[in-house]
Amino acid sequence: MTWSVPSARAVDLRVEPVDDVLDRVERSLQLRVDRSTVIRKRRSVGGCTDRNTWVRVERRSLRRIAAQGSNGPEAAAALRNVAMPRWCAGLTWRDEREPVMWRADETEFVTGAPVGQAALVVEDPRLADSWWAELNLSLDALTAQTTPRIATPDTESITQELVETTIRPTFREVPNLLVDEWTSAHGDLTWANVMGPEFCIIDWEDWGTAPRGLDAATLWGNALAVPTLADRVWAERRPDLESRSGRLMALFVCAKIVGPYAHEADPRLKPAREKATRLVGELQSS
Question: Which of 1, 175, 193, 281 has the highest local Cβ count within 10 Å?
Answer without folding.
Answer: 193
